[in-house]
Amino acid sequence: MAVLSDVLRDKIRQALEDGWSSKWESVVSGRQAIREAVNAMDDYMNNNAAAINNSLPADAKANLTTSQKALLLTYVVAERYKVEV
User: What is the domain partition of the chain in residue ranges?
Assistant: First the structure.
């Protein structure tokens, strides 16, 4: 899977900014720094997708769809870092 488009990356940055400001969370980084962090995370996911998939048990790897695997990862990361999804 290719990295996200600039439009989608900027949409994520905006959603993060909106979410943080609606919860009155202070973020020291500016808009550009947040965008660079989005880019880095997207690049990381692109570069490590095979490793993430290979970490799954054979049954899950063979039978879960890509979307189901993404949701699984989302929930594990959210629980690990106590983030509401």
Answer: 1-48, 55-85
